[in-house]
């Protein structure tokens, strides 16, 4: 069963741990236990902590960080909410900024934890989502950056009646906090806490069942310690480089940032470092392609494939597959492109992971497009439909290639003068995806109907 909704207390009530390296004090940590799920029995023997890993463990850990931050916001709003409006001094301003920053940190991407999705948290209440959007803008524009209407300064002079100017200076304006905004923040925090409580309860119950299903030997082998995977200085620097490269867009500056990351970590053997290197190389190839430097882009994609094409880790295999797709796209419509797509299909065609199946589907659709509109192209589109078109619950990354393959197959049949077969293909597409709500599928359905009508008229 899940535990009753619990809020973190003030960190002053936490257990203090001392981290040492030899005899040297490295850091003091405040540690709080937060019970998520229980089977209802009372512990009979002495307990010791063991470290859990995996998707569910990571989700529970991420959600607990969100609950910690939201509990902080709740306590500050409860204790100082009226002071934010009635008293406006350095302390209350600092606390208000801390509440906004902690709250928004739950909804912005970070390697420390997976962010909450504001649309999911507040979608049931239009007013709450409107308030959430405003708070995001308040923090991002008016507090973190200088584009704001909440404080400012203006150079001024005092004029005497005779026109003399005895002094000049500035007038600084700081807007007082709107009481309706404080109330809105309370509501947003409360709704987010409830969302996290439900999510962490669901994940906690699954995690408890997962651990209880392990054999006694497997549980005994779990690492017995209080363990926190804190980032190293290299981790932090690496993550900032990746973020900086993405923020710089598609120019040479972004490429230079990716080169810096690759030079620093390119020979690392740890997966935590190999992943951002693969990502940086892939993004560098994309930047080069966008700049029209195709030969350089292909060389980078070849580097990705050489480094990670034989990796066993899914995250690295995915980057190699994506590099093959992009390399084929850069090569264009020749035989070399077809050879690249065939290479990808040979490497990953039997994969069961969605991220790899998506790349296989892309490669097949692209190969069919390169082959243009003959029987060979039709055979490739049939392969796409046979591989990915049987399950109705397929996610969009696989349904869309199936829809594209059907549209392209219909076009190829029409070009060969096989209009009746083309109409049947378009009817198949409409039957499969006619009620889809996703825009890419709706556009393909509309295209199929329009082309079908044209064939009937011709």
Description:
By secondary structure, the protein is mostly helical. Helix content is 64%, strand content 7%. Among the domains are: 11-146 and 179-220, no CATH class; 231-331, Serine Threonine Protein Phosphatase 5, Tetratricopeptide repeat, CATH 1.25.40. A two-stranded antiparallel sheet has the order 1-2.
Chart the SSEs and their pairings:
Elements: E1 15-21, E2 24-31, H1 55-86, H2 90-105, H3 118-122, H4 126-143, E3 151-158, E4 167-174, H5 179-212, H6 216-220, H7 233-247, H8 252-265, H9 271-290, H10 294-308, H11 314-331, H12 335-348, H13 354-371, H14 375-388, H15 396-415, H16 419-433, H17 439-457
Which keywords apply here?
458 residues; mainly alpha; globular; Serine Threonine Protein Phosphatase 5, Tetratricopeptide repeat
Strand content: 5-15%
Mean pLDDT: 83
Strand order of the largest sheet: 1-2
Helix vs. strand class = mainly alpha
| Largest sheet features | 2 strands, antiparallel
Number of helices: 17
Distance between the termini: 66 Å
Estimate the global geometry from the Cα principal axes: globular
**Helical percentage:** 55-70%
Instruction: Report low-confidence residues grouped into runs of 5 or more.
Output: none
Give the topology string: H per helix, E per strand.
EEHHHHEEHHHHHHHHHHHHH
Number of strands: 4
What's the quaternary structure here? Answer: single chain
Rg from Cα: 29 Å
Quick gist of this model?
The chain is mostly helical and 458 residues long. It is 64% helix and 7% strand.
């Amino acid at each position: 069963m899940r535990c009753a909704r619990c809020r973190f207390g003030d960190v002053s009530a936490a257990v203090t741990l001392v981290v040492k390296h030899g005899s040297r004090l490295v850091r003091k940590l405040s540690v709080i236990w937060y019970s998520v799920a229980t089977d209802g029995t009372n512990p009979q023997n002495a307990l010791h902590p063991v470290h859990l890993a995996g998707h569910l463990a990571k989700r529970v850990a991420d959600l607990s960080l969100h609950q910690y931050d939201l509990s902080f916001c709740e306590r500050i709003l409860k204790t100082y909410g009226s002071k934010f409006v009635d008293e406006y001094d350095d302390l209350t301003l600092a606390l208000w900024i801390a509440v906004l920053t902690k709250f928004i940190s739950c909804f912005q991407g970070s390697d420390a934890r997976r962010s909450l999705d504001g649309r999911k948290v507040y979608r049931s209440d239009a007013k709450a989502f409107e308030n959430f959007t405003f708070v995001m803008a308040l923090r991002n524009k008016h507090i973190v950056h200088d584009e704001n209407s909440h404080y400012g300064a203006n150079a001024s002079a005092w004029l005497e009646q005779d026109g003399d100017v005895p002094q000049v200076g500035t007038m600084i304006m700081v807007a007082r906090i709107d009481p309706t905004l404080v109330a809105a923040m309370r509501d947003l925090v409360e709704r987010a806490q409830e969302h996290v409580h439900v999510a962490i309860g669901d994940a906690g119950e699954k995690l408890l069942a997962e651990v209880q299903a392990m054999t006694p030997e497997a549980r005994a082998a779990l690492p017995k310690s209080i363990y926190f995977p804190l980032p190293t200085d290299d981790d932090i620097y690496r993550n900032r480089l990746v973020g900086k490269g993405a923020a710089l867009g598609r120019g040479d500056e972004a490429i230079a940032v990716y080169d810096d990351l690759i030079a620093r970590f390119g020979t690392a053997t740890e997966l935590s470092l190999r992943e951002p290197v693969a990502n940086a190389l892939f993004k560098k190839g994309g930047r080069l392609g966008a700049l029209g430097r195709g030969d350089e882009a292909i060389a980078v994609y070849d580097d990705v494939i050489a480094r990670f094409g034989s990796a066993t880790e899914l995250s690295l295999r995915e980057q190699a597959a994506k590099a093959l797709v992009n390399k084929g796209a850069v090569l264009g419509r020749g035989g070399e492109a077809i050879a690249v797509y065939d290479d990808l299909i040979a490497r990953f065609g039997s994969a069961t992971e969605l991220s790899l199946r998506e790349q296989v589907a892309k490669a097949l659709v692209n190969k069919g497009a390169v082959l243009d509109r003959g029987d060979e192209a039709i055979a490739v589109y049939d392969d796409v439909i046979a591989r990915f078109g049987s399950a109705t619950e397929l996610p969009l990354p696989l349904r869309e290639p199936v829809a594209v393959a059907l549209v392209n197959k219909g076009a190829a049949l029409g070009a060969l003068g096989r209009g009746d077969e083309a109409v049947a293909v378009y009817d198949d597409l409409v039957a499969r995806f006619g009620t889809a709500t996703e825009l890419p599928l709706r556009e393909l359905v509309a295209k199929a109907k329009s082309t079908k009508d044209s064939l009937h008229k011709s």
